[in-house]
Amino acid sequence: MAGLGRGFDSLIPTELIDDEFDPTALEDKKESKLKEIKLDDIVRDEEQPRREFSAEPLEALAASIKEHGVLQPIVVTKEEGKYKIVAGERRWRASKIAGLEKIPAIVRTLDAQNRLELSVIENAQREDLNAIELATAYAKLQNQFNLSSEEIAVRVGKSETSINNTMRLLSLPEDVKKIMVKERLTEGVMRPLVSRDEKEIKKVLPKIISEGWTARKVERYFAQNKKKSSAAAIKRKANIKDEDALSKKYNADARISGRSLTFRCKSGAELQKLIDRLKK
Fold this sequence. Notes:
12 helices, five-stranded mixed sheet, alpha/beta, 280 residues, 13% strand, 54% helix
């Protein structure tokens, strides 16, 4: 399985899966040939982790395809009379834009887990997925197919720590994840927000976007605020002792705020008594 993490060594990706990973691989080698398949006979895989396809890069790829053709075949499986994309949805979309009727393809025999793994591998190797899409794909491999973080790491050629850190992004509030995708914020800059309260996140997120904060600056921001909060807590603890002592001494509710001392009385009579005491 070690070969899975090495990327695509060939233009025709038929060696991505070894026999242990995919029992159908040997049969595919015997029967699969490069085919020209009608674009209308091909459908996307709704379980494909990638959801965002930027228009400008697609147009650029379409222009290249018009001039040079599709240099790397897509990988598909045949289901219910149609061909479902395993790898190469971007090439398929660009070919449509380019006005092609057919596209070169390798037909494979894969189950749902194999398809998802291949999609993750292809997109992760090329860094086509945003961090939320990648985290969602990892979570599917873990939850739907019972793969451990270590096993996923082997599949995609990354460290187990990297897999776990990416999946932690899924704990962010839904609207924050949407903003992350829309603003193309990196995993690094968002990771310090994972364990934060939603109010804290909403407070710092606009600054990250408008000022282009780095991950280090986000971490520094929270570190400084932690020091301020700790100092304020210590000061408040000391104030509470003084407030209790003053409240008892003058029989009124004492409050210390910054450099101010305030007494609250329940009635006009209590206020007058307090004034008399303070005059003495």
